[in-house]
Specification:
The chain is an all-alpha fold. The chain is built from 4 helices and no strands. It starts with a helix and ends in a 34-residue tail after the last helix. One of its GO terms (biological process) is cell division.
Length: 146
Amino acid sequence: MPSYIQGNLALDQKRSVPAAKAKVKIKETTKVVYRNKSLPAQEKMLYLFTVLLCVIVAGVIIWRYASIYQMNASILKMQGEIREIQAQNSALKQEVEKLQSPDRLKEEAVRLGFNLQDEKQVSLVAPGKAKTGTNSSKNTKVASKP
């Protein structure tokens, strides 16, 4: 029986003898490394200016977007102020209409002590006695205090 089957290879005479006689040859190889030449100065400057140009263009674009955003924000703020002022104007118009109502004016006249005129108390003002700046051709009613 061979020794491999028994599990012991040290007893195998066939394998140990050729391995001792064979010499191990190590082959040394040299690897040639090629170094690229560095870029010329003109090409380096070209790359530098290209990158610089890209940075400047990007900066201008970002600056424009920032100014557009700022303008939009101010427009929205002004629109809010316009809405607020329009609301105030409508409230003031309602108040003016309320204050100009004939019923309120009559109540205010009575409160201040004015008497209502009768048809007989109407007097006409002559054109020569009219104040300057008024239409002298029309007859005006004069309110009198009792």
